[in-house]
């Protein structure tokens, strides 16, 4: 029996993977804001708002205190906003939830991952897709905000997170896997303006069923890739790098992230 931790595990792809791994007899811990949804799945639940820095740290500490080993950390939490929103910590909300929480849990739970037999981090984001460069002078989208741009920006940050994690922990046994699940009719949780809501409804009608996303992700848990860092679109390998400057950008983003978190 493996111990699987899934952020965003109460909805969409995270919930589909939780159902899949529970059916295999694993211990599944889901993290989300709605405890009732986690309980309905039959999973262990940690209720938390992962857009908040204090909650990110609380979840890391709680998981470290409750589980001696974590076989897989699956990072799925996302929430779309058509209009810019700042968290109480002063971070743009998409960046805080979809990047900062993944940064904190990836690095913060490494010792518990390393205690497992074949540990893996699955960062469910968007490798293999073209994205804008990091807004080095405007991580908070003070200018020119759009919900789609914020999502792509967080996706780019997660590409660099994988590179930064592998560089920071070169001797770790934990495999870091960035996965683009492709078009999936997930819950698309968020707050949408009418135009974006109509587009999302069209996407739901044409995308694959959400449960179809679970088996490819589950396969990475059962047999992590051999490389310390890898990237896939569904199950097709792609390069984790998109430009020759990615490694330098990853180092720069990691430094800025630590400064922003006061570490």
Walkthrough of the structure:
This protein is an alpha/beta fold. It has a single domain, classed as NAD(P)-binding Rossmann-like Domain (Rossmann fold, 3-Layer(aba) Sandwich), CATH 3.40.50.720. Helices cover 43% and strands 17% of the residues. The protein has nine helices and twelve strands. An eight-stranded mixed β-sheet has the order 3-2-1-4-6-7-11-12, with helices on both faces. The protein has a two-stranded parallel ribbon with strand order 5-9. Helix 1 (12-23) crosses helix 8 (214-222). The longest helix has 22 residues, at 147-168. The radius of gyration is 17 Å and the shape is globular. The relative contact order is 0.15.
What are its keywords?
263 residues; single chain; alpha/beta; 9 helices; 8-stranded mixed β-sheet; two-stranded parallel ribbon; globular; 12 strands; Rossmann fold
SSE topology sketch:
Layout: E1 3-7, H1 12-23, E2 27-32, H2 35-41, E3 44-47, H3 53-66, E4 72-75, E5 80-81, H4 93-108, H5 110-114, E6 120-124, H6 147-168, E7 175-180, E8 184-185, E9 190-191, H7 194-206, E10 208-209, H8 214-222, E11 229-233, E12 236-238, H9 246-260
Parallel strand pairs: 1-2, 1-4, 2-3, 4-6, 5-9, 6-7, 7-11, 8-10
Antiparallel strand pairs: 11-12
């Amino acid at each position: 029996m493996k111990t699987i931790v899934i952020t965003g595990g109460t909805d969409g792809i995270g919930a589909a993977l939780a159902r899949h791994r529970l059916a295999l007899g694993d211990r599944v811990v889901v993290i989300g804001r709605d405890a009732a949804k986690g309980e309905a799945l039959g999973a262990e639940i940690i209720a938390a708002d992962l857009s908040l820095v204090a909650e990110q740290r609380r979840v890391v500490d709680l998981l470290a205190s409750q589980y001696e080993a974590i076989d897989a950390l699956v990072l799925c939490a996302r929430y779309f906003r058509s209009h810019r929103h700042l968290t109480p910590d002063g971070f743009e909300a998409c960046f805080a939830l979809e990047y900062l929480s993944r940064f904190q849990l990836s690095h913060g739970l490494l010792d518990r991952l390393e205690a497992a037999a074949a540990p893996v981090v699955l960062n469910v984001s968007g490798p293999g897709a073209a994205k804008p460069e990091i807004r080095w002078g405007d991580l908070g989208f003070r200018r020119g905000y759009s919900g789609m741009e914020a999502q792509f920006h967080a996706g780019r940050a997660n590409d660099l997170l994988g590179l930064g994690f592998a560089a920071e922990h070169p001797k770790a046994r934990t495999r870091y896997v960035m996965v683009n699940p492709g078009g999936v009719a997930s819950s698309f949780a968020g707050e949408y303006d009418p135009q974006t809501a109509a587009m999302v409804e069209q996407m739901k009608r044409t995308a694959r069923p959400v449960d179809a996303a679970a088996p490819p992700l589950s396969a990475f848990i059962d047999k992590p890739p051999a490389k310390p860092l890898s990237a896939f679109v569904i199950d097709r390998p792609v390069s984790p790098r998109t430009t020759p400057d990615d490694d330098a950008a990853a180092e720069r983003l990691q430094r800025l992230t630590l400064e922003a978190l006061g570490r």
